[in-house]
Specification:
It contains 25 helices and 17 strands. It is α+β, with helices and mostly antiparallel strands. It starts with 16 loop residues before the first helix and ends with a helix.
């Protein structure tokens, strides 16, 4: 780095540790820093120039920049200076840049970053590999574990109902849920430390705002065993550092910040390192005041001096220095070799009975202290203790300042606001010119041709003057004039209106929009991102391109903010691992996250300390969430996933994991549908087979029944025929017997009948003879009328009936 002051040099970096811990070494180092950066009061110093630049950018970012430059420019550009048009102009800056700053800051903060700690040392890796293998085995045997749980009610390690169904889901499950005990403890302790320091809501927000407005942000970490691990915001305008062009400040050798405080506060910080004579000397040297009168303040309970309220600049600085640690390898009388720490200085011993062999290791230490700028006073200086280090490389140390920048050039970062200052000035100037044009705008007017109004006679009143005609026109809207001029020719109406107009207003509005577009081009905040002019008919691809363009323009700010978050979390984890066992803060963490967790995290004597890698996880962006939601809705509409699957996918914060889970659940659902289709086809085929078998069985049974019926019919027929033949036989037998008996009886009866018939015939013959004789006698008597009729025999009728019965067939 260029030696801007040209009078001081840095002390010897190869000096002994004892010399480095002396106040004189610290004073020389502090003066060398002062010679490079200069004082705040020096307008040509590097510190003052960057201080003014950051102050200017911050004012533009807040919309409170100085307006005197606009007044000077308008007065110089106004040809009618002194016409009063600039008096009533509102010089309040147009808050355009604050809008773009808020959009960028809120866009980054909306991602809600959080640390994800993963142990990367071999011990942790092997433990996690075993855990992953165990989960994979349990996923493969999930059905067996479920059956075992249902049968016995015993759960082994992980509830099988919470296990994923496939190995693809198992990978996502392992990434989110499988952590070693040390990782869990570190994760909880880090989040708790960030919460105690209100880092996300306060410090990180200010840092993102600084990255946008100034291009740099700084956080200071302290790990006092009694006061805990704290993260403090440092204003970049007060921050100083060694020469670097690295935006991550990974190669800085020293860093510090300037505090402006009263001597009364300096007394509290310095403690016993400075006395009242030193404070009086500081006041006299910096303020030119040698008054040291004092009085006892009963309220404060201490002596108060006149110079206690004098403000001084104090530089809190720290730097890295390499020291050499010496070890001695010594052989004992048993032939064994041991190593012994000999400190930072070593002198080889002579005349030893056993062999001695020196070894050395170069380690980086941190030295820090306070320096009152402009004086020779240094206090609180020495080698820093409780410096967080990587346990797997204890030779390296880091400063307590975590700083990042969007870019670095000549020790000055270039911010987004800095690139827009010129356009913001022109936009503000255009806005003021628009106000000036409006102020100079004339009201509606008239063009009056006086000659055309002369010699107008209106009756007895005589001729009217032009002013009289003007009054008549203003009162009535009617004006009188002669249409012919004195030469006899026709002339135009003498009164014509002048419309209201603002000069160059359209050109100024176009110029305003031009500079607004220039600011959008520089910041990358286009209309799609800030939703200032949303278009319903804009294509999705066009919107995505606009969002991608904005992300590319603001990537440096986003990346620097995430790098700062990672640095802070890494420092916190390292500080947690070196907390002294007997310290107050260790007890606080044990009570907060549990003694077992802290023992695992800071186990320094029993097991090797874990080496953690910090990854900053963020919520997915709005475009990613919208795209994911669109895919979820498509999958739901096509019944490729269930509602429970969509809820699980939305719960993930990482877009890659969410997409992987969506793909896995879709595959799982499709496989289930295929299995169900196969099962349905199998069931249908089984049902068809069963139906065919049943139909065949039914046909067989029907045939059997028909055969049985036929046989039964034949049996019945044969039985009936036999019975019929038996009955016929019996009938024939009876008939024959009847015939035989009938034949025998008939013959007897026939003989008797014949005999009776002969008797009857004879009797009948006698009766007929008698009747004939009676009839003849009757006829004769009638003819002669001599005698009456002869009576018929009495039994004639009875005999006829008997005969008739006999003759009637049986």
């Amino acid at each position: 780095m260029k030696n801007y002051r040209g009078s001081k040099n840095f002390p010897d970096p190869l000096a002994s540790q004892q010399e480095k811990e002396s106040d004189s070494y610290g004073l020389r180092y502090a003066k060398a820093i002062e010679s490079q950066w200069g004082k705040k009061s020096d307008s040509n110093s590097v510190f003052r120039k960057r201080y003014d630049l950051f102050e200017k950018n911050r004012r533009y970012a807040n919309g409170t920049q100085d307006t005197n430059i606009y007044k000077k420019l308008l007065n110089n550009l106004d040809p009618n200076s002194g016409d009063g048009s600039l008096i009533n102009i509102d010089y309040t800056p147009v808050p355009v840049l604050p809008k773009f700053v808020k959009i960028v800051v809120n866009k980054i903060l909306a991602r809600d970053p959080y640390p994800n700690l993963e142990a990367v040392d071999p011990l942790s890796s092997s433990e996690k590999d075993k855990a992953k293998k165990k989960v994979e085995d349990q996923v493969k045997r999930k059905q067996e574990l479920l059956a075992f749980k249902q049968k016995t009610g015993v759960v082994l390690d992980i509830d099988p109902e919470e296990l994923p169904d496939t190995l693809e889901e198992a990978e996502i499950f392992i990434e989110n849920n499988i952590k070693s005990d040390a990782e869990i403890a570190a994760q909880i302790a880090t989040n708790m430390t960030l919460s105690w320091n209100n880092f996300n809501d306060a410090t990180f927000r200010r840092c993102v705002n600084d990255l946008t407005a100034l291009g740099i942000c700084v956080v200071k970490r302290s790990n006092d065993p009694n006061y805990g691990i704290t993260t403090s915001y440092i204003d970049p305008k007060d921050f100083i550092h060694s020469q670097t062009e690295d935006p991550s400040f990974s190669d800085v050798l020293y860093a510090g910040h300037v505090k402006n405080m009263p001597i009364q506060e300096l007394k509290r910080i310095a403690g016993d390192d400075l006395n009242e004579d030193d404070f009086a000397e500081i006041s006299r040297k910096l303020k030119g005041s040698s008054s040291s009168s004092s009085k006892y303040d009963t309220t404060l309970g201490k002596t108060v001096y006149d110079y206690d309220e004098h403000m001084v600049d104090v530089l809190e600085f720290e730097f890295l220095s390499t020291d050499c640690m010496h070890y001695e390898e010594k052989e004992n009388r048993h032939g064994n070799r041991n190593f012994f720490f000999q400190g930072f200085e070593y002198k080889e011993k002579s005349g030893s009975v056993f062999e001695r062999k020196p070894h050395k290791m170069e380690v980086t230490n941190v030295y820090k202290g306070y320096y009152v700028i402009g004086t020779d006073k240094v206090f609180g200086y020495g080698r820093a203790h409780n410096v967080p280090k990587n346990i797997h490389d204890i030779s390296k140390a880091s400063l307590s300042y975590s700083a990042t920048a969007t870019n670095m050039m000549d020790m000055t970062p270039k911010s987004m606001v800095d690139g827009c200052v010129g356009f913001a000035d022109m936009l503000q100037l255009t806005h003021l010119k628009i106000q000036q044009s409006i102020a100079k705008a004339k009201p509606d007017g008239l063009i009056i041709d006086i000659e055309g109004l002369e010699n107008v006679q209106l009756g007895k009143g005589g001729e009217l003057q032009p002013l009289d005609l003007h009054d008549i026109y203003e009162q009535t809207g009617v004006f009188y004039y002669r249409s012919k001029n004195p030469d006899g020719g026709f002339q135009n109406p003498p009164i014509r209106e002048i419309g209201n107009s603002i000069r160059n207003i359209n050109e100024l509005i176009g110029l305003y929009n031009h500079y607004l577009r220039m600011i959008r081009d520089v910041t990358g905040i286009n209309e799609v991102v800030d939703a200032s002019t949303p278009k319903g008919d804009a294509l999705v691809g066009v919107q995505q391109q606009a969002i991608a363009a904005s992300n590319n323009a603001t990537y440096d700010i986003t990346n620097a903010s995430m790098l700062l978050y990672k640095k802070v979390c890494t420092d916190i984890v390292k500080c947690l691992q070196i907390l002294p066992e007997e310290s107050v803060i260790m007890e606080v963490y044990k009570n907060a996250i549990g003694e077992s967790n802290m023992n695992v995290l800071s186990g320094f004597n029993d097991i090797p300390m874990y080496n953690f890698g910090v990854q900053v996880q963020k919520n997915m962006e709005d475009k990613d969430r919208a795209f994911l939601e669109q895919n979820i809705q498509i999958a739901l509409s096509q019944k490729e996933i269930d509602l429970e699957d969509s809820m699980a996918i939305r719960d993930l914060k990482d877009i890659n994991q969410a997409e992987r889970l969506l793909i896995s659940r879709r595959k799982k659902r499709l496989m289930m549908q295929q299995q169900m289709a196969q099962q349905n086809s199998q069931m249908q085929s089984q049902q068809a087979q069963q139906a065919a078998q049943m139909s065949a069985q039914m046909r067989q049974q029907e045939m059997q029944m028909e055969a049985q019926l036929e046989s039964q019919k034949l049996q019945l027929k044969s039985q009936l025929e036999m019975q019929l033949s038996q009955m016929k036989h019996e009938f024939n037998k009876e008939i024959e017997m009847i015939k035989a008996s009938a034949t025998l009886g008939f013959r007897t009866e026939e003989q008797e009948f014949k005999e009776k018939l002969e008797v009857l015939k004879e009797d009948r013959k006698d009766e007929r003879v008698g009747k004939q004789a009676a009839k003849q006698s009757k006829l004769i008597s009638q003819r002669k009328d001599q005698r009456g009729e002869l009576p018929e025999p009495e039994d004639t009728q009875q005999q006829d009936a008997t005969l008739q019965s006999l003759l009637t067939p049986m």
